[in-house]
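Question (not urgent): is this output format expected?
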Amino acid sequence: MNAELNKSIPRHVAIIMDGNGRWAKKRGVPRIKGHQQGAEVVRTITQACKKAGIEYLTLYAFSTENWQRPKAEIDGLMKLLVKFLRTYESDMHKEKIRLRTIGQLTDFPPQVQAAVKRIIKATENYTCAQLILALSY
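Got this back:
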């Protein structure tokens, strides 16, 4: 039975992160609160994927169209990304999750690039699972 179950579990799952602004609007809170809630959900999704045996999780997190958002929202998203990486890094080490990116990381501010590159380097030898962030794709 386990062999049959394992065949039905995909190796790779991709999620387009969308709807955080609508979530916030529905609750009457600032858009950034919706983005913060989305970041918290990432933790849950990543853990569930790893537990299920999914090897790769790609999160389409920030498209090139997102650069057209208001500057204050973009600034908030950049701070949120750095904070998320800083707080989630210990979980990545504990769970042996490798961070990778696709897209144009060079589009991002230097502090964001540095945070992402540092964690990519720190997790490059992990093989249990991979979290792939699509940034400026």
